[in-house]
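Field: COMPLEX_INPUT
Field: COMPONENT_COUNT = two
Field: RESIDUE_TOTAL = 515
Field: MODE = joint
Values follow.
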Amino acid sequence: MRHNSEPKYGRYVFGFYLLLFAVWQLLFSLRLIPDYLFPSPLQVTRRLWELGKDGLLWPSIQATLVRMAIGFAIAAGIGLFIGVFMGMSRVVNRCLQSLFLGLQTLPTAGWVPISLLLFGLSDRGIYFVIIMSSVAAVAIATSDGILHIQPIYLRAARTLGTPAYAMPFSVILPAAAPSIVTGIKLGWTLGWHGAVSAELIKSSIGLGYLLYMGRELNDAAQVLGIMVLTILFGLLLDRFLFGLIEQRIRRRWGLVSPT
Amino acid sequence: MAAPVKLSLTQVTKTFDGGGQKVEALRPVDLEVREGEYVVLFGPSGCGKSTLLNMIAGFEAPTSGTISLEGRGVTRPGSDRLMMFQEHALFPWLSVIDNVQYGLLWQPGLRFRRGRRRQKALQLLALVHLEDFADSPIHELSGGMKQRAALARALAPDPKVLLIDEPFPALDALVRAKLYDELQDILVRTRKTIVSVTHDPREAACLGDRVVVFTDRPGRIKTEIQVDLPRPRDINDPRVAAHATRIAAELKEETA
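Field: COMPLEX_OUTPUT
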């Protein structure tokens, strides 16, 4: 685990997962629950292998990832834009903060029905759910980051001759970067929830769709397998894409001791 | 001293509005700073000397009176009156050299000339003996090194007047003494015009050509003490100490 500052823990983490699978296998072997409801790790792996061979798995993963890449890029852009305004104006902040905090209490799946009504079964509806699920988190983190910038940086920037138009990109966004990255990580996770929730209901491809299909076919192995995959991809991107960016920023700022 | 006047303050006052109550911070101040001169504003805390420095920098507007640099009125912050803060205030998202060349970005003619900016920044880093740390992140520098980097950054846009708010308060005595030497060395080499603020009479005597003593709040100029000692001055030189005693006596008389 490269992101971990102490690589020796990697072994324990690996062991932990091994143990987790062993317990799963053990529970299965005890046959407390019939195997069509509670499949073994082996059955789940085999089912995923079959899905892969049938050409259903990779296109689905790809579809979900592409939707996320596009949807989240739009969401992050909107969130940053709104967040900067919220961070620079107390009035805008007061007005939007309660609204966004309120929206965040809505479970991401709660956006699906309205998206169905607005967009029908089209892909645009999935983008809508992704964006609505993640914009608030990015905007709030951005504005919080900006509001908590140490005034000394702004004063230094001004005395060094920074013109007003250059302040957002030269000083304000970089100074708020640690908080913004945290918000983007959170926004990504929420968007990921939203994407899979939306795909459950209104798609013919994607991880959420495979989950839905599994349930329709009473295929517990497929349901569990896709769940594991969804968790895995969410975790991988969180750790290795955003995690590494976050780590880099924190290191540069001296917020963690360099390894 | 026949050098031309750089900075001039005429009848400058400051009154704060504290909850409907007017608080007078500064009585009318007249002050002229000549080219190449080092003027120290000295006084008890709360005497308005930092407020005065903030007004010269353009962070605050005077309640009345005018401040002008080379005949032009001061209205907002700018790198011609560059201020160094008590905290180093280096940007943690930039490397040491990017901090130093930051101010050059906004200089006419340098915006799109990366090579020129970098070259100038390297010269300044050499001046403060940090050339080996050009690409280091800020947090890897020690306290004294950070102050030196901040000094290099402040010198980069070639300010007409350098304003220093309590030059090196957060450093231990040894590092401070070294920084005094370096600051004087740079001062002698660049003949910078400097206005700084302190409440330490030793520091005032060691650094200033002229020490302006302020009264307690509401502040006004009580007297000015000329320090005609050769540079570089050693902070432990008995002649510096003698001046420091005189400066401190003025203050004691004031607070008594």
